[in-house]
Write a structure and sequence with these properties.
globular, alpha+beta, five-stranded mixed β-sheet, 15 strands, binds magnesium ion, binds 2,5-anhydro-1,6-di-O-phosphono-D-mannitol, eight-stranded mixed β-sheet, 8 helices, Fructose-1,6-Bisphosphatase, Chain A, domain 1
């Protein structure tokens, strides 16, 4: 029988690789893992409990909040508050971040967490996979109240990032900058168990994921790439297969396993795209790059964008390295026609 490694054991083993680590990041990851299990429990019984449907409030993006969004946000923030390792949470559900540094337990906390507690929530009512995305930064100063520049750090400064996918099984996938590992929740023991060690994305693949309904609003480079995906060329395994769930975590997770590309570009009516830099694009970019893939706006590496706003949107092209590079080549031929300003 194969020995099981739980997420908790794995985190502790990895901490031993860093002799000066004091365990704070390990505890923070553990806290996120615990909250994920609580959210998973509610997601799983969503059709049974009176938790499906909308809460009646809108979040700062003007989107209607689903009840589960609110529940997930509360669980993650509570776990981070009680855990004491995080001093500030930037969440998709809050216009301003949540400052935890006033709590005695977190006043010396060294970490900042950016989180989308429940991404793809428009899929909840139809039982389609949804996810949580998180990103962790180290504080720059510990002798003053939290500064804006500490919250808006460039993606390359992430110390850890991960996602949880609530799908046909529930998985937690994360990186601390030394590769990517995936854990599947075993409901019989209530533990995330190492199931996908050292995940790697294939250099190329045959899946492309994009909301083609927006085709007429896409920039020329993306239109050309879609044509390229649909052309017949047995040498490059084309035509590719189109797969789009409409849940970023699920789309990127599938492409990570099978090889492929996910694109949410700028459009004529949304010149900065839809997805948010701080808690959607940066963490997914860190994970995919750590797995050997690439993440770009079409012109620039996602991880090199200097954030200016907490809820800033950016176009994203992410996945198998060679596929992303093909899109970048097309962007060189067709410069962005819209006024992309990454805000
Ligand atoms: P959300 O944060 O409001 O859930 O929106 C993000 C989601 C992503 O998961 C997904 O890739 C995208 O929105 C789908 O958008 P669209 O319906 O425009 O294709
Ligand atoms: Mg989201």
């Amino acid at each position: 029988m194969m020995a099981i490694t739980t997420l908790g054991q794995f985190i502790i083993e990895k901490q031993a690789d860093f002799p000066y680590a004091k365990g704070e990041l390990s505890r923070l990851l553990r806290d996120i893992g615990i909250a994920a299990k609580l959210v998973n429990r509610e997601v799983n019984k969503a059709g049974l409990a009176d938790i499906l449907g909308q809460q009646g409030d809108t979040n700062i993006q003007g989107e209607v909040q689903q009840k589960l969004d609110v529940y997930a946000d509360m669980q993650f923030i509570n776990a981070l508050k009680v855990g004491g390792e995080c001093c500030y949470v930037a969440s998709e559900e809050h216009e301003e971040g949540v400052d935890l540094s006033m709590n005695t337990v977190s006043e010396k906390a060294k970490y900042i967490v950016c989180i989308d507690p429940l991404d793809g929530s428009s899929n909840i009512d139809s039982n389609v996979s949804i996810g949580t995305i998180f990103s962790i930064y180290r504080r720059l100063y510990t002798d003053r109240p939290i500064q804006q520049e500490e919250i808006l750090q460039v993606g390359r400064k992430q110390v850890a990032a991960g996602y949880i996918i609530y799908g046909s099984s529930t998985m937690l996938v994360y990186t601390t900058g030394c590769g990517v590992n995936g854990f599947t929740l075993d409901p019989s023991i209530g533990e995330f168990c190492l199931s996908h060690p050292e995940m790697k994305i294939a250099p190329t693949g045959s899946l492309y994921s994009i909301n083609e309904g927006n085709y007429s609003k896409f920039p020329q480079a993306v239109k050309q790439y879609i044509k390229y995906c649909q052309e017949i060329d047995p040498a490059t395994n084309r035509p590719y297969t189109s797969r789009y769930i409409g849940s970023m975590v699920a789309d990127i997770h599938r492409n990570l396993i099978k090889g492929g590309i996910f694109i949410y570009p700028e459009t004529s009516n949304h010149p900065n795209g839809k997805l948010r830099l701080m808690y959607e694009c940066n963490p997914m970019a860190f994970i995919v790059e750590q797995a050997g893939g690439k993440a770009s706006t079409g012109n620039n590496a996602i991880l090199d964008i200097q954030p200016r706003l907490l809820h800033q949107r950016v176009p994203i092209v992410i996945g198998s390295r060679q596929m992303v590079e093909e899109v970048e080549r097309l962007y060189l031929n067709f410069p962005v026609p819209f006024s992309v300003c990454y805000e």
